[in-house]
Prior knowledge:
Helix content: 40-55%
Structural class: alpha+beta
Strand order of the largest sheet: 1-2-5
Number of helices: 5
Distance between the termini: 73 Å
Amino acid sequence: MKKLLFLLLVVLAGLGLGGGAAFATVLLLGPKGSTASASSSADTATSFVDGGKVLAPLVFADGRLSGYVEFQIQLQVPDDKADYVTARMPLLLHAINMRTFRTPMAAGPDGLLPNLEVFRKVVLDAAPEAFGAGVVRKVAVTKATPA
């Protein structure tokens, strides 16, 4: 009985000592700028605006057409610009169309898979033309289906 009680006491002391050491390490070496970044992100509230469905051609690097793909996108914008972005969405679609036919997005051995990162970059490059600089912060591609 004495051995079992001693082993239980050693385990509890080890857990307490290890937990205390972990807590002290986080306090001393933990992230320093977390409170500043949290307060700055709270100052500018953002929302996601539905960009709708975007039909884009899949083009090989040599310029040949592989097929078409339909993307569903969401744009992260400041809350006060959400209505402005929604009203000017056709201008964004036009700017995307003017870029996708000359941007190689076909991936995979047969060219039927879209490169989502390239498309996201196309949308980010087209956004300042439609909405002005700095309005669209991020682009989320939520769906990609062959057309």
